[in-house]
Structure formats: structure tokens, C-alpha cells
Amino acid sequence: MSISLRKARTIIRKTLEKGHEMELKPLSVVVLDAGGHVIAFEREDGAAPGRFGIAQGKAYGSVMLGMAGTAQMQRAEAQAYFMASVNGVYGGQVVPVPGGVLLRDRKGAVIGAVGVTGDTSDNDALAAMVGIEAAGLIGEI
29, 114 in Cβ contact below 8 A? Predict the structure, then answer.
């Protein structure tokens, strides 16, 4: 299973809608495929221009490690040397915090990831899950 552009756009639209409902700061949302390639990205008006790199880093770490942002953060806290090594391997592209949401198919295979940034990492992850569920996909925070 792959993530279609239509589903990626649904994830983004519904994530941003949830952000507005929760009165979050302006969000930026990226959807990556299973190879870590960008399918779609949007940055809300008022979001800092550097937010793409953060959103992409959250999602990229999730898809490349097969580990959601929350698990990455726990691993970084327990074994900082591991995450430092991972970031060396991936050119510093991994941002190991919540808001990187792993996407799996019904059989458990990784099909991509969503990265959300702009508010607290926990709020970013909550908004992402709403978008993912609206697209009929399975997210792991």
C-alpha cells in the first residue's frame, strides 16, 4: 500500500483544521512515503519559514527508523549516543520528538510518515492523528 496524493492532502487539511479547532500556533505538515520522499507539504500563514526542515525531520526519522517520534525521543533520552549516530548516518535530518507519526498498513508494514510542527510536540502529534484517521490510515505516535 502506498499513500496517494489525495490521502496526503486529506491528512494535511484535517491536521490543519484540528490545529485551528485546538487554537494551536500556525502549523506546518509534511507527508512522506515509505522511502522518505515528500508527497505533500503545507506551511500555514504565520509559521516560521524553517518549519519545513523540522516537520520533515520528524517524519524522516520515523520512516527511516520505523519508530514514531515518541519512541525516538525515549531512545534519545536513554541512549543519546544512538541518536547522535543516527543523525550522523542521515546527515542530521532526524528530529527525534513527538510530531513525527509513523504510518502503517493494516498488516503493520511502514508505508510512510507525517511530520507536524508549530505548537508543542504533543499537540503536533495529536493534530496529526486526527488528519491520519480522517484519511483512513493507521498512525503511531
Answer: yes
Helix (H) / strand (E) containing 14 = helix 5-21
Give the separation between CA 117 and CA 59, rounded to whole angstroms. 10
pTM: 0.97
> In angstroms, rounded to a whole number, what is the distance separating the alpha carbons of residues 63 and 27?
20
And the C-alpha cell for 8?
Answer: 496526503
Q: What is the pLDDT of residues 40-99, one digit of tens each?
A: 999 999 999 999 999 999 999 999 999 999 999 999 999 999 999 999 999 999 999 999
Radius of gyration of the chain (CA): 14
